[in-house]
Structures are given as C-alpha cells and as structure tokens.
Design a protein that fits this description.
Structural class of chain B: alpha/beta
Distance between the termini of chain A: 97 Å
Strand order of the largest sheet of chain A: 4-6-7-9-8
Radius of gyration of chain B: 13 Å
Structural class of chain A: alpha+beta
Largest sheet of chain A: 5 strands, mixed
Largest interface: A-B, 27 and 23 residues
Shape of chain A: elongated
Number of strands of chain A: 9
Number of domains of chain A: 4
Strand content of chain B: 15-25%
CATH class of chain B: Alpha Beta
Order of helices and strands of chain B: EHEHEHHEHEH
Number of domains of chain B: 1
Oligomer: heterodimer
Number of strands of chain B: 5
Chain lengths: 877, 122
C-alpha cells in the first residue's frame, strides 16, 4: 500500500478525533458527553497497542498467559467498585488531581513524597509511551512495506504524529488551570477510540477465524498439529500457575494505579453512580477484546509456520499475506487509535503530576506567591504544556536511541512492576492508620531499586547485547544475587520474580518504618480521614482540624494570586454564606484554612497549596486525640443541633396553635361582655343567652388549659400512673355514663353489648379519660340521624383490645395518621365548635403509650364509619 | 341599608358581631366557612366583610383571593378579624387586599368605628 494513502488516512482519522474532542469541549453539558457509557469506554484506555498486537504475540508462544493482564481487572472489578467509591469521596472532597497528589495528601501533604511518586510514574511510563510510538512506526512500515523510520527525524512520519499528539494533549488538556476540572474533549475522543479499536479488532478476529479458517475448531485442529503446541499452550503446572497468580495480581494493581487509569477513573469521574455501568460493561469490553486473540495467534502460527514473522504483527500480516490490504489498514487504524489514546491520556496525567507535584512545589512557589493571578495561571498552563511536549519528545528519542527489540509485552510489564511499587503506600494509606510518610518513601525507593536490579538492569544488559556475566552469574559472581533468581528463587519467570521481591521488600520496609516511627500530627490527621472516609466525608471542611492563628485578609491575598480578585471574592462569599459567618470576620478558622487549601489544590497540587497557605498562617500542633474529640463533637453537635431545631420548630407551632385556641374563646368573652356592659337596654332573654355563652367559653378556656397541662405532665413523665387491678367493664360503664347526656342531645344510641369483662392492671381514671375521648369523638362523627356508637372488647393473645365504632362518614384516609396529633381537628365534623380542645386524642395516645399499649384509627369497610382502638397488655409488671 | 357579611366558624363570635351591627342598622349575612362566604358574596354583593382566617376547608386567604380576582367583587371592603397576629400574618393579609387587619380579641366599640370609617371614606 502506498505510504501516501496511509498517511492521508491517518490525517483524516486524526482530524475526526480532533473534531470530536473539540465538539465535546464546546458541548460539555451534552448528554452525549456526560453519560456512564462514555465513562466506561474511556476506562478502556487500558487496552493499548500492547493489547492490540502484544497479546497476540504472547499467545503465539505462551498460550493463555496473555489473559492474566485482562483477568486481573475482571476479577478485581467488584472490589474495585467498592474501593473506588472510597477513593472518589476522598479525591473529590480534597480536589485531588492525580495519583501523586492522592498519596502525598494522605501522608500529610508531603512534598517529597508527591515528587517521588511523580518521578516513579514518569520513569515507568515514558518507555511505555515510546513503545506505543514504536508500535505505530513498525506497523506503518509493515502495511506500507517500506521504512518509515528513516534515520533523519525530518523524514520520520512517527515524529510528526508524536508532535500532533502533543498538540492535541496540550490543547485539550490545559483548557482549565484547575486540573480537577474534567477534560471532556479528551475523554470523549478516547471513548470513541475505544469503540473503534474494539470494533476493528473484532473485524480482524472474525476475518481470521471464519474467513481464513472454518471457525475455532478448524484453527484448533490445524494448530494442534504444530510441533511444540502442547508445550506452548498450557499453564505449565504449579510453576505456571504461580506465575499466573502473580501476573494477575500485578494487573489488578495496574488497573487502579497506572496514571492513565487513575486519570480516567478518578479525576475524570463525574458521578459515582457511573460505576454501576462499569461493573458489567467493562469486563464485557475486555472479554470481547480477548475472544479472538488466541485464534489469531494460532491462525498465524499455522499460516506462517517456518517463516520468521513476529507474532506481534500477525494482526496485520494475516490480511496482508492474503492480499486483503484494506483489512490490514483497518487493523492498523485500530492499533493506531489504541496507541494514541494511551499516549494522550498518559501524558495528560503525567503532566499534571509533573507540574503540581514536582515543578511548582520545588521551583515556582516563591514566584507565584508574588505574581498576579493572570500571569500565574498562564504560567501554570505553560508548565503543563511544556511537560506534555517534553514527555512525548523524550519518549520519541527513547524509542529512537534504544533498540527496543523486546516484545511489546515485556516493556509494558516492566512499567507495571514499577507502578506497583506505589501500591503498598496507596492501599496501606487507605486502610491502615499507622502507615507513615517515612515508611511510604523508603518502601517505594527500596521497591524501585529492587525492580531496577531484578528487571531493568538485566533487561538492558540483554537488549543491548552487552557481554556480561551479570545475568547468568549474579553481581560480582555471587550466585545468590543472580537478578532473575534472587536468593535462589527459581520458581518464577523474570516479571513475577521481580514483582514478588520488589513488593516483598517494599511492604516490609513500609510496615517496619511505619510501626517504629510515628508520623507528624498532620499526616496522622489525614490518615484518620482517609481510613475513615465515610465518617468524615459528611463533615467536608470541618473534617480537617487545624489549630492556630490566621487572618482572613492574608488568606484572601494568597487566593487572589491564583483565582483573581473576582473569583476569590465569590468563593469567600459562598464560604461565609455556607457557614453563616460574618463577612467582616478578621480571624480565619480551621474551616477557612482548609477550604482555601482545597481551592488551590486543583491548580498547584496539595503540597504546594499547603505550603502557600501555611506561609500566611501561624499553625499550632494538635494531637490526634484532640482531632478525634473535635471531630466527634462536631458530628454530635451537628446532630443535636438538627434535633434542637426540629424540636424548636415543633414547640413554636405548638405555641402558635395554643395561643390561637386560647384567643378564640377569649374573643367571644370579651365581645359579649363589652356588649353587656355598654348596652343598657338589652332584653333579658338575649342577656341570658350572652351570659350562658360567656360561661361556656370560660369553661372552654379552663378545659383547654387543663388539657395542655395534662399533656405536658404525661409527655414529660411527671405524673406517675396509679396502676391498680380494675375491671374494664366497670370503667367502660363509667365512661358511658359521662357521655350519655351528649349522646342523648345528639340523638345517638350507645351500644355496649360487645363488652366483656376482664380484670387487669391500669390507671382507672386515665383509661376512663381515653374511653370518654373515644366515645365523644365517635358521637361527633356519627350520622345525625340514626347514629349508633358501639363499643367492643376483645382478648387477643396477651392484650386487651377496646374498640369504639361509629356509623358516620369515616375519616379521610389521608387524615388517619394525623388525628392523634395535637390540635388536629378533622375536617368533616358534623357538630360545630366549641366541642373539643383538639387535644383529646393526643392525650389519649400519651396515656395508652405510657401503659405500653397501642392506639390507632381505621375506617370500617365497606359499611363506613370509623373505628378507634387501643390495647392494654394483660401482664403489666 | 348597608350589607355586612360575617365570616367566622365560632358561633359565639358570630352571635356578638350580629348583635352589634344589627344595632348599627346593617343588613347582616352570616357564613360559617369560606365556601359559604363565597356563595353568599356571589349572590348578594355586600358592602363590607368581616373575615376570619382560620376556618375549615376554605380559609380566609382563599376567600380574599377569590374576591380580588373578580372585578365585580374586588371593591368590597374587607376587614380581617383573626387570632393570627404575627407581623408576617398581618402583612400577608394586607398584601392580599384586605383594608384592615384587626387582631382578636378585639374591642367591639373600636370595630364599629373602623367599619363606619371605612364605609364613609370614598
């Protein structure tokens, strides 16, 4: 195929990707940009050119081993979801923009630790990026059948592609100074590329399996006839199993800690609930990607047996060999898109780390603390852009200078092992309070050195074909120091072997130092927050406890250097409003200090923002015990405050109603007495009527006051119940006698045929009061004509049940639960006021509850009417 | 004869108001809740309404809203008589278009003066 055609296709492809990113950035609110599918697909940046070509290569010689890299993530996904929720909360609560920031914050905004993590990531990932460039260049050569990587850079297409990728990452990666802002353009483009690479790979897989061969069984039949097939295509017993195990663990760590994975999963996450889609969609994606790998590998082995063709290139060579060059182009584009996604996201993640955790905290803080906001922002962005370009250019030269002769997989795995060195401090920090920054630093350094010794050095020695006895005989010829068989461990292959020993020393160092040296109060405070994240997440700014002296004015000045006057003003106003603090406060409290640190963290990293803020505040040490106490108190104070407010509200409502209820009869009394006083020629019958009304309204006032006092006494438990053995029949009879006149006046019959006697302990007066309340209530709600109120008693298990029924309209179903509330008066009373105080049923409820009984109301279906019931326990002790 | 509508669910308050304003030569109409008040207002346009707020079903505010949203009824004078006497209650009543807001308990003499003043003012 002509290289001109391929280059044109690449240019068209890149323009489409650029356009999609541009569109997504412009329409960042669109549904197409913000959804769980885009999020999940962006996670598939995990599948790089390595997946595309390297898996096949690995499968040609080692069978199913390639699967470990994908099995690990699939196995870990459920645990991953739970972990991620915790990590999201911490990251969002503290405006964390990278892995380095996360680890450095956990260990008390440790500047050195952040820088160390950054350096490890850069060292691990840059060769990995050059590997992607190498894949692009090699595959380009394969399909154009000519040498793209000429020795001069000017003629090297890969160089221009690398520069274009840098422009892309720099343009879409630095739209905002705050690195915690989502990069929607890049993410959408990456998601699209994830679809493209999967789709194209499936096409090649189907083509090989079903077009070149007659399906999987045919490939298997032919491949199994090849020599060595058995040997290559098995797990290799226990030894192989152990290797499998370590490789799977390694990839579990990689899916969480690779900088690009941390970027897409944590930093770019918009909503926690997106994880629900990830849990099934992401494993499905990985499964689909891996379905055809083994068939392409076997197919290639069959077709190219006896020919010297690199297994990594089967994806392209199979269609080329059969003269299907357009299919080969599709394969090439898929690999190309896998490579550029990785390059763009990795450089974005690394550039944030480089600027926020290495360059700014070590070189630019002093300058920024004097500069203006606009200049500072521009400078921060420039640092990131320069970082992106430098990373890609360094990666390019790395690929040019070193003969990266080894297969794609091995370099990828080296970078996995390096990244894995961060795992003990990362996961330890999440779950172990004692994990200290010293332990983390030394653990990472030792683990890294072990990796260098057991993996990187022998790898370089191998690939540069330096004649050295180092690999075969060990350092200084000491057998026990053989890099691939350290301390005589012969069971493992180089990568699992290096992983095992580096982790072993890393963890031991981390744990021993952490146990023996207690970290500063600051890191212990953060440890508490990270480990117990769910408890403190709700406290937000309060969660970080700080003691000392600070002026709002000084903090405002620092913020303005980065946010500008306007945004600072807005942020401060929001803060003051949120916590209800006077705007003119001079002294800053812990919340403001913490709030300001977080505001800056997104722009300059946590360590730098901490240094800047602490330069204007005088901080005092605060012990962990104090922190815990304050946190607990804040939590409790918040809860009790809420309770108090609720109680206050209820009390106010109660007082409002009481005053209204009292004023109403007093209004009548006042008006009527005024008339009687002023009007001398009022006729005797009217006079008598008025006086009667005054009397009844006065009674209403005193009844109301008595009821309120009653309720108060019952509610506060001031009055002890007078528990005696009583006969319920007696009590009911007395109650009926009390309401008989009211019933006769309203033409209502009381039916007590359903009453059976029972002897039990209760307060006779109080229960009589309840039954009277029930009866008078029933009389109020009965039909005016032919009204019947019935009372029944039942013995149910250990309870006596007393029900009062009427044959009225019943109670509105939406009112049923309210009728026992204070002052609740049902809407459809047939008798007009003044009939009740609105407290009768509320008092009844109190009485029954203090007897340990139950009380409720219901409608009688279907004949209508209401039924009020209470129960009393038979054995009251 | 001027027409006066009493809207209140308390029989004794209604009784006293009825007595007072009969003596002042008003033609008296009585409504025991908001719904009844609206019915009476539609049939006989009164000159003035003494309106309670806290009533079952349709309350005083709703009656007031009904009056003010209807051109023919909007000019009827309204005095609110209510036990709700917080500043916010009074402001709401006046904002809805009541001419006066008199808190309960009230002086009957003062009420008579207020009613007459309101009706004589053109």
């Amino acid at each position: 195929m002509s290289s001109f055609l391929v280059i044109s296709v690449i240019v068209i492809y890149l323009s489409v990707i650029f356009y999609v990113a541009y569109w997504a950035e412009k329409n960042s609110k669109s549904k197409w940009v913000n959804n769980p599918y885009i999020y999940t697909l962006s996670l598939a940046v995990y599948c790089t050119a390595w997946t595309y070509y390297g898996s096949v290569g690995l499968a040609t010689t080692s069978g199913l081993k390639f699967l470990t890299i994908y099995l690990g993530p699939v196995i870990i996904i459920p645990a991953w979801i739970i972990l991620m929720k915790k990590i999201f909360r911490i990251a969002k609560g503290n405006k964390i923009s990278s892995l380095a920031d996360f680890i450095s914050l956990r260990y008390g905004n440790d500047r050195f630790l952040g820088a160390l993590v950054t350096i490890i990531c850069v060292v691990a990932i840059v060769p990995y990026i050059s590997l992607q460039l190498k894949a692009i260049s090699e595959t380009f050569n394969v399909i154009t059948n000519h040498n793209m990587s000429s020795n001069s850079i000017i003629n090297d297409t890969t160089f221009y592609i690398a520069i274009l990728l840098a422009v892309f990452a720099a343009f879409f990666g630095t739209q905002h100074t705050d690195a915690t802002e989502r990069h929607k353009g890049i993410i959408t483009a990456v998601a699209l590329e994830s679809i493209i690479k999967l789709f194209f790979f499936l096409i090649i897989g189907i083509y090989v399996t079903f077009y070149l061969f007659d399906g999987p069984s045919d490939i298997y039949k032919q491949a199994s006839l090849l020599p060595d097939f058995k040997n290559q295509q098995s797990i290799n017993g226990v030894e192989g199993g152990v290797n499998w195990f370590f490789l799977s663990i390694l990839s579990m760590i990689a899916i969480m800690l690779l900088p690009r994975q941390f970027q897409v999963t944590v930093v770019e996450n918009e909503r926690e609930k997106y994880l629900k889609k990830v849990i099934w969609l992401f494993p499905l994606y990985l499964l689909l990607f891996n379905v055809f790998v083994i068939f392409i590998a076997w197919g290639g082995n069959v077709v190219f047996q006896n020919q010297q063709i690199d297994g990594d290139l089967y994806t392209l060579m199979l269609p080329l060999f059969n003269n299907h060059s357009s299919l080969a182009l599709i394969g090439f584009l898929g690999g190309f898109s896998a490579a550029i996604s990785m390059v763009v996201v990795s450089t974005l993640a690394l550039s944030t780390m480089l600027s926020n955790n290495l360059i700014i905290p070590y070189g630019f803080l002093r300058k920024y603390s004097k500069g203006e906001s606009e200049k500072n922002n521009e400078s921060i962005k420039s640092i990131r852009r320069i970082s992106i370009f430098s990373l890609i250019i360094v990666a390019y030269f790395f690929y040019k200078t070193f003969t990266l002769d080894h297969s794609l997989v091995s370099i990828g795995l080296i970078s996995f092992v390096m990244i894995a060195q961060l795992a003990p401090s990362f996961f330890g920090g999440l779950f172990w309070r004692r994990g200290s920054s010293k332990g983390a630093k030394y653990g990472i350094i030792i683990g890294f050195l072990v990796t260098l010794y057991t993996l990187v050095m022998p790898f370089i020695v191998d690939s540069e074909i330096i004649t050295s006895t180092f690999v075969n005989e060990g350092l200084f010829g000491i057998q026990i120091l053989k890099p691939y068989e350290l301390f005589g461990l012969q069971l493992l292959e180089p990568v699992p072997h290096a992983f095992f020993w580096s982790m072993f020393f890393n963890i031991i160092t981390y744990v021993l130092i952490s146990v023996n040296i207690i970290g500063s109060y600051r890191e212990r405070n953060f440890a508490e927050m990270f480990v117990d994240s769910s408890k403190y997440a709700a406290l937000h700014e309060d969660a970080y406890v700080w003691k000392g002296e600070a002026y709002v004015r000084d903090i405002r000045k620092v913020l303005a250097r980065f946010l500008g006057e306007q945004r600072t003003e807005r942020a401060m106003n929001l803060f003051f409003m949120k916590y209800n603090i006077d705007k003119n406060t001079q002294y800053a409290d812990a919340r403001l200090v913490n709030f300001s640190e977080k505001l800056l963290t997104g722009s300059i990293g946590s360590a730098s923002s901490r240094i800047l803020i602490s330069s204007v505040v005088k901080e005092e040490e605060i012990s962990l015990l104090e922190v815990l106490n304050i946190l607990d108190e804040t939590q409790k104070a918040k809860e009790s405050n809420k309770e108090l407010k609720e109680r206050d509200k209820q009390k106010n409502e109660f007082l409002d109603t009481v005053s209204h209820e009292l004023k109403t009869p007093i209004t009548s009394i006042r008006a009527l007495s005024e008339i009687l006083l002023d009007d001398d020629d009022i006729d005797p019958p009217t006079k008598k009527k008025f006086l009667t009304s005054i009397l009844s309204e006065s009674e209403r006032v005193s009844r109301l006051i008595n009821n309120i006092l009653d309720l108060e006494k019952l509610a506060t438990g001031k009055e002890k119940l007078d528990l005696q053995e009583n006969s319920i029949k007696n009590t009911i009879q007395k109650s009926i006698d009390a309401v008989r006149q009211l019933a006769i006046n309203n033409g209502i019959i009381i039916n007590d045929k359903g009453v059976k006697d029972a002897e039990l302990f209760y307060d006779d007066d109080r229960i009589e009061q309840v039954i009277i309340n029930f009866l008078s209530n029933a009389i109020k709600f009965s039909d005016e004509e032919g009204g019947i109120v019935s009372i029944y008693t039942y013995l149910v298990k250990d309870n006596l049940k007393v029900s009062v029924e009427d044959n009225g309209k019943g109670i509105n179903s939406d009112e049923l639960i309210f009728i026992f509330n204070k002052f609740y008066q049902a809407k459809n009373q047939t008798i007009l006021k003044p009939a009740g105080s609105g407290l009768g049923l509320a008092i009844s409820k109190q009485i029954i509850e203090s007897h340990n009984g139950k009380i409720w109301a219901e409608n009688i279906e279907p004949q209508g009417g209401a039924r009020l019931t209470f129960t009393l326990p038979l054995n009251t002790n | 004869m001027k027409k006066l509508l009493i809207v209140d669910d308390e029989p004794n308050i209604v009784m006293s108001l009825e007595y007072i304003f009969k003596k002042e030569n008003f033609e008296i109409f009585i409504a025991r809740d908001g719904a009844e008040a609206i019915e009476i207002v539609e049939n006989t346009i009164p000159d003035i309404i003494l309106l309670d707020i806290m009533m079952p079903n349709v309350d005083g505010y709703q009656v007031l809203n009904h009056l003010k949203s209807n051109d023919a009824l909007a000019k009827i004078k309204v005095i609110i008589l209510s036990a709700k006497n917080k500043t916010s209650d009074i402001e709401l009543g006046l904002k809805l278009g009541a001419n006066k807001y008199i808190p309960k308990p009230f002086s009957t003499k003062k009420l008579v003066i207020e009613v007459n003043e309101l009706l004589n003012k053109k």
